[in-house]
Amino acid sequence: MRGLIALLGPAKVLGAHDDLLLYEYDGAVDTATPDAVVLPESTSDVAALARFCHEHAVPIVPRGAGTGLSGGAIPVEGGVVVSFGRMARILEIDVPNLRAVVQPGVINLHLSTAVAPHGLYFVPDPSSQKACTLGGNVAENSGGPHTLAYGVTTNHVTGIEVVLSDGTVVRLGGKAVEDEGYDLVGAFVGSEGTLGLVTEITVKLTPLPEDKRTLMAAFPTMDEASETVSAIIAAGIVPSAIEMMDQLATQAVEAAVHAGYPLDAGGILLLEVDGPRDGLDAARARIEEICREHAASEVRVAATALDRERLWAGRKGAFAAMGRLSPDYYVQDGVIPRTRLPDILRLVKDAGVRHRLRVANVFHAGDGNLHPLILFDSRLGPGELERAKAAGLEILTACVEAGGSITGEHGVGMEKNCYMPLQFQPPDLAAMRRLKSAFDPAGLMNPGKIFPTPSRCREFAFASTAP
Amino acid sequence: MATVARTIPADPAECAGLLVEAAGDRRTVRIIGSGTKSYLGDVGPTDVELSTERLAGVIDHVPADLTVTLGAGTRMADVAAALARVGQFLPLDPPHADAATIGGVIAANSNGFWRARYGGVRDLLIGTSTALTDGTIARAGGRVVKNVAGYDLDKLLVGSLGTLGVIVEATLKVLPLPEKSDGLVARFDRPADAFGTAHAVVRAPSRVDACVVERSAEGSWILAVQSRGGGPTVDRALRDARREVSTRHGDATDLGDDLRPMREFPARAIDGALVRVSLPLAASAAFADSAVGLESFAALVVDVASGIARVHLVNDDDAVLRDAEALLLAARMVAGAGRIERRAEHLRSRLLTWPNRPNGDFLMRRIKDAFDPAGILEPGRSAFA
Question: N or C: which end of chain B has fewer CB within 10 A?
Answer without folding.
Answer: N
